[in-house]
Amino acid sequence: MIPSEFQYYRAGSVKEALDLLSEKGPDAKILAGGHSLLPAMKLRFNNPAVLIDISSIPDLCYIREEEGHLIVGAGTTHAELAASQLIGDSIPMLAETAATIGDLQVRNKGTIGGSLAHADPAADWPAGLLAADAEIVITGASGSRAVAVVDFFKGLFTTDLSESEIITEIRVPRPPGNTLSTYLKFEQPASRFAIVGCAVMVTRNNGACENVRVAFTGVSATPFRDNGVEQALEGKSPDAVTVAAASAKAAANVEVMGDHFASQDYRRHLARVFAKRALTAVTS
Ligand code: FAD
Predict the structure, then answer these.
(1) What is the CA 198 to chain-centroid distance, rounded?
(2) Between 20 and 30 A from 212 (CA), which of 2, 46, 101, 164?
(3) Angle at 181 between CA 213 and CA 272, to 5 degrees
(4) Which of 52, 165, 53, 184 is nearest to 109 (CA)?
């Protein structure tokens, strides 16, 4: 459980971190909370020759509102997000997500940017951020670009991020007032990673459901928006029969994972159960 030898640099700014990334090349890795990278290094799954620690960069730690968006610095910890009144009041689902991650130690050190960059298929953040229609701001030597969360995840532990870029910010549009959201998961009992996690956001207009967004994590190699469930509820009045029929469509069009925690069939069943619970919670 001892990692191979590495050089350690602590960056004081995003520019310094980017300069170090370009100087040290592909053997260098960003270190944020270390709660995914360090276990992987101890198991020798990952052996970077250089670590660039971004955890003390003040410019990466903030939660604020700007032009109708909630803006979160990539270095903000899960605990800071769980405790944020702005997040809790504006999009409760995101505060709920943060609070369900791991244990206190994990939440105190782990960051939202680190979780997104790591792209663990069982990570919690992707579902909530997909349902909230968020964007990820990625910064490299030539400037910043914004990528919709729906385009960011490319596969198992694979994202749109290049080796010379850093996630710097997450931008979440503030939903209209008559919007409800929740995140529910069936969790692995030791780590609390999501075996199946379902985030939903629904706006109500004269009783009908609008802008229905349903997203899953844990179900397949890549987190996804479930258009089948969304379309079955969009524009409809959410009575119990409609919600049950919509939930029954969950995970119908994805390749569901099976492992020692849950078989494919059981995971698909859980996706339907958790879609129904989450939709019922926000529509009844
Ligand atoms: P690090 O471990 O420092 O880095 C992870 C990866 O992301 C590395 O490849 C690193 O180079 C890269 N990286 C980090 N920050 C950036 C950035 N800003 N830009 C570009 N690349 C970056 N997660 C859950 O979602 N749910 C859980 O229930 C859960 N339970 C856990 C239980 C335990 C015991 C542990 C150890 C972890 C658990 N986690 C869980 C994972 C946890 O949330 C991690 O904190 C998170 O996945 C990674 O964030 P980090 O800041 O620690 O990143």
Answers:
(1) 11
(2) 101
(3) 60
(4) 53
* Residue 37 φ then ψ, to 5°: -70, -45
Q: What pLDDT, in 10s, does the model give residues 139-153? A: 999 999 999 999 999
Angle CA(199)–CA(77)–CA(63) in degrees, nearest 5?
80
Query: What residue's CA is closest to ligand 1, atom 53?
Result: 114
The number of the ligand 1 atom at minimal distance from the alpha carbon of 35 is 52
Q: Residue 23: pLDDT band by 50, 70, 90 thresholds?
A: very high
Mean pLDDT over 29-44 rounds to 97
Pocket test for ligand 1, best of 106, 157, 162, 193 (most atoms within 8 A of CB): 106
What global pTM score does this model have? 0.97
Pick the residue whose CA is nearest to atom 31 on ligand 1: 102
